[in-house]
Sequence to fold (242 residues):
Amino acid sequence: MKPPNPTAIAILAELATVDQHRVLRQADAALTERVLALKHYQARRFEHTYADLLGSERYRAAVRFFLEELYGPQEFASRDAQFARIVPSLVRLFPDAIVDTVHQLAKLHALSEAMDTQMAQALPRSGLQARDYLAAWQRCGQPEVRQRQIALVMDIGQRLDTLTRKPFLRATLRAMRGPANAAGLGDLQRFLESGFDGFAQLRGADEFLATLRERETRLANALFGVPAAQADLRLVPWSELP
Fold:
């Protein structure tokens, strides 16, 4: 019998980590409420930080991919279950470049969910304000984890940029739309197409990724760098929140 593929095992382990956080939240209604509030808050932060790129025809789709498919407040349980179903076939049938990109996506997903759980546990209430968010960020600490999160985003972006330069892969993905929907893999198909379309529209991702790296690193450094009471809340400004 052929031994299990190590990459398939690693991807499934990351998805299992995400599922463990779902189970933890399902057992605690207050935690679930705080996680959802946190995710909505972070989505608004992302929209504010990248308002200029969201207003750009070139960058909008790529920003939306990160906002809605990686950092959004949506529940991704259905998509993750679809991912888990096809992992063995994925690693067997697809090129290493695609498999490795999926592995990095799974790593980022698991890391982000773990950080969201920790942040939510540190929040005093679901109706959080800017000071609450900042205090929870600092209470969780782990600046190295934040940097790893940024590094994963950069790596995934660079990989997607490379993959979208290969017309064969994009054509293959489009051809999979019908079979994927018929097989109950529609959420996964939409996710993959969103990533490909967003990065193809960039026509080169270097400037986009450099902007993400600079802004996210500056924000993380600023929030870790001063006591919460002295922090400049203009770093986390949303007009609808105090």
User: Anything to note?
Assistant: The chain has a mean pLDDT of 84. Residues 6-235 form one domain.
